[in-house]
Design a protein that fits this description.
heterodimer, A: five-stranded parallel sheet, about 15% strand, B: alpha+beta, five-stranded mixed sheet
């Protein structure tokens, strides 16, 4: 019975995988907001409205210059956007958020109102990993939401396998690690051992605000404040958690696999 | 209302004054708790509150049939007290936790060891229980598991394929949430509550918001309560659907696995339609909700929900039609009803043992005072029962949502929250998709948190997974595990 049912449904449904990245990127939910933009030149002296509402102190103010917003600490709650009376912080509705360097996530200065998107790997690494990237995911603290959206990329809607990207069970089979969570003290040794077991050349990706900075748990002594102090990071994907589209954009950007119209 | 005396009785999400919590000597508190548990109460929480040089033990019980909660406390103590665990295994982790946090030794506890604290750069959770003998072997799994999931360590004692004992050691995800709360709430507290357990954001956020509202002596507007109830069922739908897909995957039934993976995402997108975040972050705030469900959005939500419910019904029909699936689930991973009662199982895992336990029904608060959906129960205690309960809950959540969406409530979505009252206590229970989420808050003289105790349903249920493996083949572990799908971070805090 179910065999005929399944076949019939399969035919009726056709292909459910989204056309991105060959086609246009699917729209983010209208309340999502996407990446933030901060134009600190609009900040009048003495205004600190945004700083007071930020749960993770992602916004810093120093005398003599405007606000600085660290998207590595940001939870994208949007409270600062609502609180800013001068329109200095705005939502861009842009899903693209991945950067190669930690400092590229800091917004505010003239010329750095938005984050500086990640460049692709160098030619040699791209030729090694560009068509087949195996990642060992290490969940090092955090809350499991990043893991959930990493898993989503494996479903038929996103079909990560079509890019040759795969999550593998053993670090020995991997080309790199994908880290989530603030790297708790409990996971420090496990992360180090996993990283040591990945053969070189290898890459490391920090995914989610926890893995970049400690996220909502910034300041707690039970973690290391992200993966940075433990292993060198090649790609930062901010968000709490990042939308699957943001994650996919990060992977493809790093591998130089995005077609020009989606760069 | 005196069925729980001499404990102080109160209802879910109501404020009581700390002074009205009766004080007993610690031996009397243990004896009274023992008597209450004997007569059918459940241990919701058991924790320590630092007081000068000692620690006050607090017992929070639930009397489900009466819809009331009971609380009592001990005089400040140090050193040791008689353990509840030998008679009531449901207390075993609570007592280990109190020992770890406050140094109080439960005398007679059979397996006293750390729960989540670390030694240098790994949890201090060894040594493990060891079965000795020539035919025995040990299987160690984790903390880094084969899939994309959270870290934990499993230690199996096996005779051939058969598991004699499984010990589960957690603590890898410990981020220090509870320790950070005294003196609060702080600006980051709400975000931390939403990230206590990522897949249970709505339930934990609702519990925290209820705590703040109860402490302030107010309620969120009805429309906000209605929105929270909708979000809670969407969370249940997404997770149950995802787990049914994962179960299908692990018995190699790929049509349902492929379909459910996608439909889970569809449900998450409905939550994102409400608030922008697929896990519901930023929706709930103490005092109300941050986003409304305007008419047009409500129509879109209903239409999309109709399509997704039809899809999931189809995927479930394939699944249950297949004899190969049913036979794989029957009589595997059995937890007997008496075991379930002893270890204090909650949520779908308890309902799959025939226990009728559902906070939405037993201790209604918020919107659930006005609307119910039938409690889904199945008696056999095996994987079949756990999958069946999930599958029934998918149907019932769907119907509940259609009823709610058809009759929206008017009014504001936020109210101005007053400051928490001093020297008060409140308990908020919410039926998350895994079961009972319990938040207990106690305020100091200034109305700041003096103590905040969080119990995720996983805290009760990990022992259930360990028991379900006894006498089962080690190769059945993946489906047993998926049928519970417990939270590591919710446990580790």
């Amino acid at each position: 019975m179910y065999i005929f049912d399944t076949i019939l449904n399969r035919m009726r449904r056709g292909c459910q995988t989204i056309p991105y990245p060959k086609g246009p990127a699917p729209a983010l939910p209208d309340r999502h907001g996407g990446a933030l933009r901060l134009d600190a030149s609009l900040c009048p002296e003495g205004c600190a409205q945004c700083q007071g509402v930020c749960p993770t102190r992602a916004i810093t103010l120093e005398p003599g210059r405007g606000a600085r917003l660290d998207l590595g600490r940001c939870l994208f709650c949007g409270d600062c956007v609502a609180a800013c009376p001068h329109g200095a912080i705005t939502e861009t509705n842009d899903h693209r958020l991945a950067t190669r360097r930690r400092e590229d996530l800091i917004l505010g200065e003239t010329g750095a109102e938005e984050l500086r998107l990640a460049a692709a790997l160098d030619k040699k690494m791209k030729s090694l990993l560009g068509r087949s990237l195996r990642l060992r995911q290490v969940s090092a603290g955090g809350c499991g939401a990043c893991e959930a959206d990493i898993n989503v990329l494996g479903t038929i809607g996103w079909d990560l396998g079509r890019f040759g990207i795969q999550y593998v069970a053993s670090p020995r089979h991997a080309d790199g690690v994908l880290i989530t969570g603030p790297v708790t003290k409990g996971m420090e040794l496990a992360l180090q051992k996993t990283w040591a077991a990945v053969p070189e050349p290898r890459i490391a990706i920090a995914l989610g605000s926890c893995a970049i900075s400690g996220g909502p748990f910034i300041g707690h002594s039970q973690h290391n404040g992200g993966a940075d102090p433990i292993i060198p990071i090649d790609l930062y994907i901010p968000g709490c958690p990042p939308h699957p589209l943001t994650i996919l954009d990060g992977f493809l950007r790093l591998l130089g696999r995005l077609p020009k119209h989606n760069l | 209302m005196n069925t729980i005396a001499p404990f102080f009785s109160f209802t879910n999400a109501s404020r009581i004054s700390w002074a009205s919590v009766p004080v007993f000597s610690v031996t009397k508190l243990v004896r009274l708790t023992d008597e209450m548990l004997e007569s059918g109460a459940r241990l919701c929480s058991w924790f320590g509150v630092p007081d000068h040089d000692g620690t006050i033990l607090v017992a929070v019980l639930a009397l489900d049939s009466e819809s009331i909660l009971g609380v009592a406390r001990s005089e400040p103590i140090s050193g040791s007290y008689p353990s509840l665990t030998p008679k009531h295994p449901q207390a075993h982790l609570f007592e280990r936790e109190v020992w770890e946090q406050h140094g109080l030794v439960p005398v007679g506890h059979p397996w006293l060891k750390p729960v989540r604290h670390t030694f240098e750069n790994a949890p201090a959770n060894a040594p493990f229980f060891l079965v000795e003998g020539g035919e025995m072997h040990e299987v160690a799994v984790g903390p880094v598991h084969a899939g994309v999931i959270e870290p934990g360590h499993f230690r199996f004692q096996c005779a051939g394929e058969e598991v004699l004992h499984l010990e589960i050691a957690l603590g890898y995800q410990h981020r220090g949430i509870e320790e950070a709360l005294p003196g609060g709430p702080y600006p980051a507290t709400m975000s931390q509550m939403e990230a206590l357990a990522g897949d249970t954001s709505i339930a934990h956020a609702t519990a925290y918001a209820s705590v703040m509202e109860a402490l302030a002596g107010m309620e969120a507007p009805l429309r906000a309560q209605w929105l929270r109830a909708i979000a809670l069922e969407l969370e249940r739908l997404a997770n149950h659907t995802g787990d049914m897909g994962a179960l299908a995957m692990d018995v190699a039934f790929l049509p349902t696995s492929a379909a459910c993976g996608k439909i889970r995402g569809d449900f998450l997108n409905l939550t994102a339609l409400m608030c922008g975040n697929r896990f519901g972050r930023g929706l709930i705030r103490p005092g109300g909700c941050r986003h409304d469900l305007e008419e047009e959005r409500l129509i879109t939500l209903t239409e999309r929900l109709k399509a997704h419910m039809a899809d999931v019904e189809q995927a479930m029909a394939w699944f249950w039609d297949a004899a190969s699936v049913r036979v794989r689930f029957r009589n595997v991973g059995v937890v007997h009803p008496s075991q379930a009662t002893d270890i204090g199982l909650v949520g779908p895992a308890a309902r799959a043992c025939g226990l009728v336990r559902d906070v939405r029904f037993d201790h209604p608060a918020g919107w659930h005072r006005f609307s119910h959906s039938p409690v889904a129960v199945w008696p056999s205690g095996d994987i079949f029962a756990r999958a069946r309960v999930r599958s029934l809950e998918i149907q019932r959540s769907g119907r509940y949502l259609f009823d709610q969406l058809a009759a929206p409530v008017d009014g504001d979505i936020t109210a101005v929250l007053s400051a928490p009252q001093p020297e008060s206590m409140t308990v908020a229970l919410v039926e998350g998709w895994r079961g009972e989420v319990c938040h207990v808050a106690l305020t100091d003289h200034f109305g700041r948190f003096r103590s905040y105790k969080i119990t995720d349903p996983s805290f009760h249920n990990w022992t259930g997974l360990a028991l379900s493996l006894r006498g089962t083949a080690v190769s059945d572990f993946p489906i047993c595990n998926k049928s519970f799908n417990l939270s590591y971070c919710g446990f580790d805090l």
